[in-house]
User: Which sequence fits this backbone?
């Protein structure tokens, strides 16, 4: 049976609290990505949301992990402030060039706030954004439920834009389903299910199996990227490894840190 083109990773890798949990206590920070790449083949870069990426930084990342694929989160100017210039686009694109030139860019992730609802003005904005980043695979995460309709999904598919399917606390009222497939890739982000403290949640095996069924339902032979964003305490690492095991793509020769193993045991007996 051919292996599914489903790739699993974490939303970011450079969290100080992961030291002593996922990263060895004495491992220098500059070696964290090299440690991460032993476990996962894909990663989301989230620092680019707060600060425009520079060529020197992304070139360093590619040099440290030449086979790692990167999804890069768009700067908040493009999704939250929504006031950007042509120079801003050029600045962002120039910053990710080393990843693009290496052929390691999965997509640019545009994550919009829940307050960004469906309207003619906002739809026109998405059209402009799509045009300005036309040279790249684009993944749109639209948390407002008003975008969750067949007309919009058709619009995305016609432009080869990927809709980001999410899992999140239902109490937040985000568009968590049904999951659909548009564009040339599938993209999934898992934010956890803790309404009191977003990103601080450990999925159970039963919940991961439910998510896996949903992933397989939208798969359709497309490259499919699953990113765990429950980053607090490196819970995403524990869940991502477990998810890879469920997919049958985990390398059992890779040692799993004891602190990660303990998360599974703790969750089992909660």
Assistant:
């Amino acid at each position: 049976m051919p292996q599914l083109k489903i790739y699993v990773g974490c939303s970011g890798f450079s969290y100080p609290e992961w030291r002593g949990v996922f990263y060895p206590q004495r491992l220098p920070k500059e070696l964290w990505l090299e440690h991460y790449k032993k476990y996962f083949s894909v990663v989301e870069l989230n620092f680019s949301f707060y600060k425009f990426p520079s060529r020197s930084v992304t070139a360093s990342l590619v040099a440290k992990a030449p086979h790692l694929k990167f999804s890069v989160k768009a700067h908040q100017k493009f999704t939250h402030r929504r006031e950007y210039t042509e120079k801003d686009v050029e600045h962002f694109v120039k910053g990710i060039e080393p990843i693009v030139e290496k052929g390691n860019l999965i997509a640019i992730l545009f994550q919009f706030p829940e307050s960004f609802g469906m309207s003619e003005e906002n739809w026109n904005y998405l059209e402009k954004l799509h045009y300005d980043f036309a040279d790249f695979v684009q993944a749109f995460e639209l948390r407002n439920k008003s975008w969750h309709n067949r007309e919009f999904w058709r619009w995305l598919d016609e432009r080869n834009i990927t809709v980001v399917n999410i899992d999140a606390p239902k109490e937040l009222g985000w568009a968590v389903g049904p999951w659909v497939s548009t564009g040339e890739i599938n993209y999934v982000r898992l934010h956890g299910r803790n309404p009191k403290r977003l990103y601080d949640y450990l999925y159970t095996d039963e919940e991961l199996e439910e998510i896996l069924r949903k992933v397989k339902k939208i798969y359709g032979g497309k490259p499919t990227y699953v990113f765990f964003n429950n980053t607090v305490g490196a819970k995403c690492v524990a869940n991502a490894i477990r998810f890879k095991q469920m997919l049958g793509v985990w390398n059992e020769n890779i040692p799993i840190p004891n602190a990660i193993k303990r998360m599974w045991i703790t969750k089992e007996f909660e």
Observations:
- The longest strand covers residues 105-112.
